[in-house]
Amino acid sequence: MRIVAQRVTSGSVSLEGQRRATIGHGFVLLVGAASDDEDNTVRRLADKIIDLRVFADKAGRMNLSLVDVGGAALIVSQFTLFADMSRGRRPSLLKAGDPARAEELYEVFVQCFRERGIEIQTGSFGAEMRVSIENDGPVTLVLSTDDWPTRV
């Protein structure tokens, strides 16, 4: 699984020109799941993100988690996080894996946030969406459960 986590003041997703989901302060999470990911690994990654201390405390230091600040999460599927760009100019998406299994893993990830009492909104798995992100900081983190070669 690969995730781009952006601390935001707001985020939204639109489908076919209609707004589907909106959040205020929290995280926009772009989530790519591979068919060889396992449920327990996905759960561990979700817990890590929920408990990341990247929100400002009263002294302005990144010291608080999503739970501490009562933040929300907008979770958007993003299979292109598995794009291989090591050859040529067109990304290969073969590593993204089976869409049915990836959707199951995406749902496991979303459920982890629900179980922890986080307000969540989602995009629509596999759909073409417009994502609006007002990055706060900016703070953008990349997390992965696998070795992620970034060779160009």
Q: Could you give a short description of this structure?
A:
The chain is an alpha/beta fold and 152 residues long. It is 22% helix and 38% strand. The strands form two sheets. Strands 1, 2, 3, 6, 7 and 8 form a six-stranded mixed β-sheet that branches. A two-stranded antiparallel sheet has the order 4-5.
Instruction: Provide the CATH superfamily.
Output: D-tyrosyl-tRNA(Tyr) deacylase
Count of all domains? 1
| Main sheet attributes: strand count, strand direction, barrel closure | 6 strands, mixed
**Residue share in helix:** 10-25%
- Count of separate DSSP helical elements: 3
Oligomeric state of the chains in view: single chain
Instruction: Determine the strand fraction and express it as a percent band.
Output: 35-45%
CATH architecture: 3-Layer(bba) Sandwich
Large-scale geometry: globular
What number is the mean pLDDT? 92
Total DSSP E strands: 8
Report low-confidence residues grouped into runs of 5 or more. none
**CATH fold group:** D-tyrosyl-trna(Tyr) Deacylase, Chain: A
Radius of gyration from the alpha-carbon trace, in angstroms: 15 Å
Distance between the termini: 20 Å
CATH C-level class is: Alpha Beta
The secondary-structure element order is: EEEHEEHEHEE
Structural class: alpha/beta
Q: What keyword list fits this structure?
A:
single chain, 152 residues, alpha/beta, D-tyrosyl-trna(Tyr) Deacylase, Chain: A, six-stranded mixed beta sheet, 3 helices, 8 strands, 22% helix, 38% strand
Write structural notes for this entry.
With 152 residues, the protein is an alpha/beta fold. The protein has a single domain (2-144), classed as D-tyrosyl-tRNA(Tyr) deacylase (D-tyrosyl-trna(Tyr) Deacylase, Chain: A). It is built from three helices and eight strands. The protein has helices at 39-50, 66-69, 99-115, and strands at 2-15, 18-23, 26-32, 55-56, 62-64, 72-77, 119-122, 130-144. The strands form two sheets. Strands 1, 2, 3, 6, 7 and 8 form a six-stranded mixed beta sheet that branches. Strands 4-5 form a two-stranded antiparallel sheet. The relative contact order is 0.30. The mean pLDDT is 92.
